[in-house]
Amino acid sequence: MKRTAAAALRNRAAIADALAPFLPATGTVLELGSGTGEHALLFAARFPALRFQPSDPDPAARASIAAWAAEARHPNLLPPVEYDVRGRTWRLFPVDAVLCLNVLHVAPAECARALVAGSATVLPPGGPLAVYAPLVHRGAPLTGRLARLEAKLRAHDPRLGVREVEALVEDAGRHGLALAADLAMPEEGDRLLVFRRAPSPSPPRA
Question: Helix 6-19 vs helix 38-46: angle between axes, to the nearest 10 degrees?
Answer without folding.
Answer: 30
